[in-house]
């Protein structure tokens, strides 16, 4: 649990901030090749061949619809859920070419779909921004059919990193608390400065070191060494402009997924950490 103004399982300031973020970075400027590459990294644990013909999928916290644009091509019907009306308006625009998408303004604990109705439920980079992550996972999993697949990405607590890495994060988190308290326009400027002054230099150095044969897996921000500056700007605002952020160890995520009734739980053992899937137990 995290303190702060909430409505049900919503942190209102965080929801508002993400709406503004997706209006600014609607992802239409993201190179298509990079979009597919990022999508594959998050969805690498999903075996699409196991989904039935005409499958029903649920995107919990759809944001700009950047994942949905790929998922909609692979399922029969896709329901997109977001608590931000501004984010939903961006998603509607981005997915206007698809006829199999439905949009719902809702919190995760009030999803307007019957329990046991979906073959696939996914929530990427969202449920660590709600006050009670475990309860949110439980509510999302309830929408799955028996045997349905749940995919989640939650911020990790650096449980697979050296101690200095977590201390470096603690310093950056103090900066996040400061930046996230600013008005959106100033937050966006601060995030751009961080993208220019921190993300880009570290990512460039990691790329250079990798070319010399160095292992850069523990190098800060090495994840961005092959990403566009647009992604760096987006993620800098996402990371430093968000008021509520929670982080979890692999073991904590495993426990939450088991409590929600999932079995056959698997974790992606490379970045981004932690992505995990599970199957709803009958």
Describe the protein's architecture and organization.
The chain has 282 residues and is α/β, with parallel strands linked by helices. Helix content is 40%, strand content 16%. Strand 6 (262-267) and strand 7 (275-280) form a beta hairpin. Helix 1 runs parallel beside helix 4 (85-94). The longest helix has 28 residues, at 184-211. The two termini are 29 Å apart. 41% of the residues are buried.
- Please report the total strand number as a whole number: 7
Number of helices: 9
Q: What's the end-to-end separation, in Å?
A: 29 Å
Residues in helices, as a percent range: 40-55%
Radius of gyration: 18 Å
Question: Which whole number gives the mean pLDDT?
Answer: 94
Strand and helix map with partners:
Layout: H1 12-24, H2 32-42, E1 56-60, H3 68-71, E2 77-82, H4 85-94, E3 101-105, E4 118-124, H5 133-141, E5 144-153, H6 163-179, H7 184-211, H8 229-240, H9 250-259, E6 262-267, E7 275-280
Parallel strand pairs: 1-2, 1-4, 2-3, 4-5
Antiparallel strand pairs: 5-7, 6-7
Helix pairs in contact: 1-4, 7-8
Brief digest:
The protein is of the alpha/beta class and 282 residues long. Helix content is 40%, strand content 16%. Strands 3-2-1-4-5-7-6 form a seven-stranded mixed beta sheet.
Defining key terms:
alpha/beta; 9 helices; 40% helix
């Amino acid at each position: 649990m995290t303190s702060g103004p909430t409505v049900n399982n919503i942190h209102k300031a965080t929801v508002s901030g993400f709406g503004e973020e997706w209006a600014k970075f609607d992802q239409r400027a993201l190179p298509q090749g990079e979009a597919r590459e990022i999508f594959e990294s998050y969805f690498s644990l999903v075996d699409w061949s196991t989904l039935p013909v005409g499958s029903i999928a649920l995107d919990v916290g759809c944001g700009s619809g950047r994942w949905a644009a790929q998922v909609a091509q692979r399922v029969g019907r896709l329901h997109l859920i977001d608590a931000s009306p501004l984010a939903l308006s961006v998603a509607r625009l981005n997915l206007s070419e698809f006829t199999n998408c439905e949009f719902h303004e809702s919190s995760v604990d009030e999803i307007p779909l019957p329990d046991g109705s979906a073959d696939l439920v996914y929530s990427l980079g969202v449920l660590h921004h709600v006050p009670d992550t475990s309860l949110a996972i439980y509510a999302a999993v309830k929408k799955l059919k028996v045997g349905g697949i749940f995919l989640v990405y939650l911020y990790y607590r650096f449980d697979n990193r050296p101690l200095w890495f977590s201390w470096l994060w603690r310093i950056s988190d103090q900066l996040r608390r400061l930046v996230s308290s600013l008005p959106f326009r100033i937050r966006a400027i601060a995030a751009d400065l961080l993208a220019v002054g921190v993300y880009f230099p570290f990512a460039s150095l990691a790329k250079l070191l990798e070319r010399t044969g160095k292992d850069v897996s523990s190098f800060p921000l090495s994840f961005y060494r092959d990403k566009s500056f647009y992604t760096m700007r987006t993620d800098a605002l996402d990371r430093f402009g968000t008021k509520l952020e929670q982080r979890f160890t692999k073991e904590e995520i495993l426990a939450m997924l088991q409590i929600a009734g999932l079995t056959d739980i698997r974790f992606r053992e490379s970045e981004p950490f932690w992505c995990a899937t599970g199957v709803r137990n009958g």
